[in-house]
Amino acid sequence: MQRLRYSIGNRSSSDTDKKIRSSAYRIDRPLSCRSICRYINAASDYPRRFSHRRRVVDLVFLLEKCYVATLLYVGAFSFGVSTSITLFYNGFVVGYALSGSENVLYSIILLVPHAIVEVPAFWLAGAAGLRVPFELIRYCSGNQETVLRKSSMKRSGRQFAFAILLLGVAGWIEAIVTPMVASAF
């Protein structure tokens, strides 16, 4: 196959070809895996790349996490199917990204500080999202008098709010601690 020569701004096609061939930009990986690999591989460059946009990066980390937590919580309307799929998919993506990483130990060191808080927060949001299907199953099996108990829905809302709070802490750790860890290695 003949290669087409092109240029983007001041980049030559060889620079772009190198990026496409690198592990972070492999085309055969799903989009989210590519973005995670790009994040992991760029983490060593993190303090220099994002220092002038620190607040924007903090907000982006928080919004991404809140979006996933909301997907987990709203999964109650699909009777827990989308919640289960989202939980498994997130674990799969992180494992797949780590398997494609050039330095797995370094990648794990970068992920662990915020993952300690983030993973339980996602589990908590998933548990809150699975509460509604659980209540419906209990009602249909005759173990409960009402379809949805008010106390159960309040508990679910509190779990989700606490999960969002934990995700805020995880986002802060990812934006503040991860760059320090990356620059230490």
From TrEMBL:
Coiled coil: none annotated. The chain crosses the membrane at residues 71-98, 104-128, 160-182. The keyword tRNA processing does not apply. The keyword Membrane applies. Keywords: Membrane, Transmembrane, Transmembrane helix. Pfam families: SpoIIM. It comes from the Archaea. InterPro entries: SpoIIM-like. This is Stage II sporulation protein M. It comes from Haloterrigena salifodinae.
